């Protein structure tokens, strides 16, 4: 089992910044990829950014490239999402997820943290 706990959400004005954290605990030794997803009201959940737990290679969805940065601290078993130049359309619940070695999909999820960007 892997437990994921997000923190760092909040209310920010457009153009501002927030840093989300996701602390992982439990059987973290077989994590393959960690990711941030988001879901806005009335919209489907989308992948925002991913990071390979071993190689640190990253992926970003086009809408956040150049504004968001995903990083990880393996010693703390924590993944971060630095969000700069925030826009109202970034408003969503942000979820942390873990893809374990041998799994077919992301199978561990945090409860989410709300990010609200006001115009």
Structure description:
The chain contains no helices and eleven strands. It is mostly beta strands. The protein is globular. The model has no long low-confidence stretch (mean pLDDT 95). 0% of the residues lie in helices and 56% in strands. The strands form two sheets. Strands 2, 4, 5, 6, 9, 10 and 11 form a seven-stranded mixed sheet that branches. It has a four-stranded antiparallel sheet with strand order 1-3-8-7, with no helix packed on it.
As a percent range, the share of strand residues is over 45%
Q: How many individual β-strands?
A: 11
| Helical content (DSSP H or I, runs of 4+) | under 10%
Tally of alpha and pi helices: 0
Would you identify the regions where 5 or more consecutive residues have pLDDT less than 50?
Answer: none
The string of secondary-structure elements, in order, is EEEEEEEEEEE
Calculate the terminal CA-CA distance, rounded to whole Å: 40 Å
Shape: globular
Largest sheet: 7 strands, mixed
Classification by helices and strands: mainly beta
The overall pLDDT average reads: 95
Name the quaternary structure. single chain
The radius of gyration over CA amounts to 14 Å
């Amino acid at each position: 089992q892997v437990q994921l706990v997000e923190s760092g959400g909040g209310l920010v004005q457009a153009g501002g910044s927030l840093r989300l954290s996701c602390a992982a605990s439990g059987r973290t030794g077989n994590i393959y990829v960690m990711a941030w997803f988001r879901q806005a009201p009335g919209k489907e959940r989308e992948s925002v950014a991913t990071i390979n737990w071993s190689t640190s290679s990253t992926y970003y969805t086009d809408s956040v490239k150049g504004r968001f940065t995903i990083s990880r601290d393996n010693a703390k078993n924590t993944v971060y999402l630095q969000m700069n130049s925030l826009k109202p359309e970034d408003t969503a619940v942000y979820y942390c997820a873990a893809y374990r070695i041998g799994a077919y999909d992301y199978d561990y999820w945090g409860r989410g943290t709300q990010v609200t960007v006001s115009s």
